[in-house]
Amino acid sequence: xxxxxxxxxxxxxxxxxxxxxxSAQGIDQKINEVFAxxxxxxxxxxxxxxxxxxxxxxxxxLVVAATVFTLYFAFIQLRGFxxxxxxxxxxxxxxxxxxxxxxxxxxxxxLSGTVGLGNIAGVAVAVGIGGPGATFWMILAGLxxxxxxxxxxxxxxxxxxxxxxxxxxxxxxYYLTKGFAExxxxxxxxxxxxxxxxxxxxxxxxxxxxxxxxxxxxxxNVVGDYPGVITGVIFAAVVFAVIVGGLxxxxxxxxxxxxxxxxxxxxxxxxILLLNFDxxxxxxGQIFEGAFTGLGVAGGMVGALIQGFKRAAFSNEAGVGxxxxxxxxxxxxxxxxxxxxxxxxxxxDTVVICTMTALVIIITGQLLIDPATGNYMLNEAxxxxxxxxxxxGVALTSAAFSASFGGFKYILALAVILFAFSTMISWSYYGxxxxxxxFGESNGSQLFFKVMFCFFVIVGASASLGPVIDFSDAAxxxxxxxxxxxxxxxxxxxxxxxxxxxxxxxxxxIKKFGTPAE
Length: 518
Description:
- The chain is mainly α and 518 residues long.
- The protein contains 21 helices and 2 strands.
- It has helices at residues 2-19, 24-46, 57-72, 76-79, 81-89, 103-114, 117-130, 133-158, 172-182, 188-223, 228-243, 247-275, 280-293, 300-316, 322-327, 335-342, 344-363, 394-402, 408-439, 443-462, 466-507, and strands at residues 161-162, 168-169.
- A two-stranded antiparallel ribbon has the order 1-2.
- Helix 8 runs antiparallel to helix 16 (335-342).
């Protein structure tokens, strides 16, 4: 049956490829024009700043929510960190519990959806505009975002659907529907449908086309120009081979790819820091001083704060609700355990990986300093810090790493490919669960979405659909608007789950798996 489905899917993909017109560039431009005209207002609204500032209200929405959850759960990210590690190690895991994947696999799948190009290019943009001080605010926002992940992932497991074949479906669309009904609140179903629509759009764009597009750009940077459709077809075939097997297949890949790509990137950064050991203290001094003085960069302290908060929010997606979909599939009968495990996600993504990127950029001297004043020099436009060779974004990160390792562009290209691939397969699962919530769990419905997702991989690698990507990014953060509203109403349920779990843990009712009963 699976082979028949695979052949049907490949045939459908071939038909869609055959239907693609030769004048791809003209189609690209036409889609850009239509999308920009019809959806520009939505993109502008989601990312619009507060009057008189450059601070997007959606970032404030996520940061305020993270602060509320941090205080409401009494700094759970600090109290629960050690227990989270024990859970990931499997100390409390019962293989007979309902669910599809282990705590570690769920964490790896969720991380693969957030660890990506934002950690490489996005951090460079934040530091390039906000200076080293942006790193401090990025770390702070990442630490607070751990509480948002704790809240949404606990709810994801508590209100998931469990099916006779052992599969599960969970996420905001389920806890908005069931949780609101349980509390007698209206509007849950409407919020769930809105979230699902935004999730599908975000999965096809930011979680798919953008990733394929940037991966192709990095590959051509190493091997030279060639048609993007080739990259697209190869990526689509590999992605389909993974996602056709469902979450367990995805988890088996991500539990290997995520540690490899994360360790490879972090180890490279650590080696560079060790080679520049004498500058580490100075770099941290720049980070702390810049966080509260601005060191003369564009926007000063406020500019550093805005860039740091923005990068953390865009990188770890705490409050967006996407990770709750992956975490919902964990094998456990205690919803709160996956809340604990999810605490590690923003920590690894933002506090560790994003900080490593920022430190390497600072310590390798990519940001130009005026020797007369000690302040960072601005570019000609006065909008960002002047850099060596005028680099920005991913080029700035590449230059920073290459300053110590001349061949780093090859490592970076491999990292980008792995980041893009892992992000795509994770977002395929997020989009699939939103799709099946709206259109049912049948095999045909699921296969249709998977084929469509892979087709958009090819489109993304072949074209530069700027407004389409902008719209899908806006859709991802529109998910956060809907999700956070739900979290505010449902967080008392999470608190009740937490208090009950801690009570049973303290009394000895909950034991490490394999510990004999007294």
